[in-house]
C-alpha cells in the first residue's frame, strides 16, 4: 500500500461557490461556457449576486486541492496525501481546513492575515461549468512558507508531486524548488496545463517548469491552445500530445507521458512517440449533474494508481472512474467509499 504522504499537491485553495445559473447571467458578466478565468473588477459583484439570487453550494475546491482529495478518497489510506496552499484567516479558511482534514488530507496552509480566502464562482449552465476565480489569499503564497522545515519535510517525504498550472500565476519559484528536488531525487513531478489562459499568458513560467514534468495533464482545448502558442500549426490532439511528450527533459530518469482528456471522447496518452486511446465511461445526458471537477477528479483517480506503481491502463481507468462519479454529483464531491477494482 502507498506509504504515508507519498503524494504532495501544491496549489490555490479556493472555496467553490457553485450554482446553476442562466445564459443571461453569463452574458451579463461576459463569461464563456466551459472556460476558466481569473476574476477582473467587472466580475467582483457576481459572487454576491450568485449568493442572493441562486441556490448556492459552498465546497472546498481549487484544482489541485480537488485532485489531491480525490486521490486520497481513492486510496482510502489516511494521510497518504499532503497539500500546501494559502488561505485567509476567516470563516472560509476555517471551513477549508475542516473539509480537507475530514477528507484525510494532511494540509499545511499558509495563512495570510490581510487577504480573504480565495473563492471560485462555478457557474453551471446545461451541465457545463464555467469558472471565475478570485484568488485573494491564494495569490499570497510565499516560498518562505515552503522552505520552513515543517513544510519542506512534506516535499522530502513525497515521491510524487502534482501541481495544477494555475499555481504558475502565484508562485513559480515554489514550483521550481519542488521540480528541482524531484529531478535530483528521481521522483515523479506532474503538472496540468489547466486553462487556455495559462498556456497563453504564462507561457514563460510554464516553459521553465516543462522540462521537469514527467506527466503533463490537460484537456483538448488546452492542448490546442498550447499548440497554437508554440507555433505548431496542428489542431490534432494526438499529434500535440506526442509533441508535448517529446519536449526536452531536465532529468533522464523518467520519460515524459502526456495525458489529454477530451470530454466524452477517448483519453489520449502519448509516450515513446506513440499514442494510445482509452475510451471513457459514457454517461447518459440525464445523469450528468455538472462537469465541475471532472478534470480534477480524473487526475486524482489517475494519481491514486500511479503512486501504487500500477500500469498506465489502470491509472487511466481509475481516472475515468473518478471523473464519472464526480460529474453525477454537484461540485467535486464523492460518496464515502469508492467502488473501483
What does this structure look like?
The structure is a single chain. This protein is α/β, with parallel strands linked by helices and 341 residues long. It has a single domain (7-13, 62-117, 136-327), classed as 3-Layer(aba) Sandwich (UDP-N-acetylmuramoyl-L-alanine:D-glutamate ligase). 37% of the residues lie in helices and 24% in strands. The chain has 13 helices and 14 strands. It has a nine-stranded mixed β-sheet, sandwiched between helices. Helix 4 (91-102) links the parallel strand 5 and strand 6 (106-112). The model has no long low-confidence stretch (mean pLDDT 94).
Helix content: 25-40%
CATH homologous superfamily placement? Ribokinase
Query: Using only CA atoms, what is the Rg?
Result: 18 Å
What does the largest sheet look like? Answer: 9 strands, mixed
Number of domains: 1
Q: DSSP helix count? A: 13
Please give the order of strands in the largest beta sheet: 6-5-1-9-10-11-12-13-14
CATH architecture: 3-Layer(aba) Sandwich
What coarse outline follows from CA principal-axis ratios?
globular
- Determine the CATH topology: UDP-N-acetylmuramoyl-L-alanine:D-glutamate ligase
What is the number of E strands? 14
Return residue spans where pLDDT drops below 50 for at least 5 consecutive residues: none
Average pLDDT rating? 94
Order of helices and strands: EEHEHEHEHEEEHHEHEHHEHHEEEHH
Q: How would you classify the helix and strand content by structural class?
A: alpha/beta
Please write the CATH class name.
Alpha Beta
Strand content: 15-25%
User: In angstroms, what separates the terminal alpha carbons?
Assistant: 15 Å
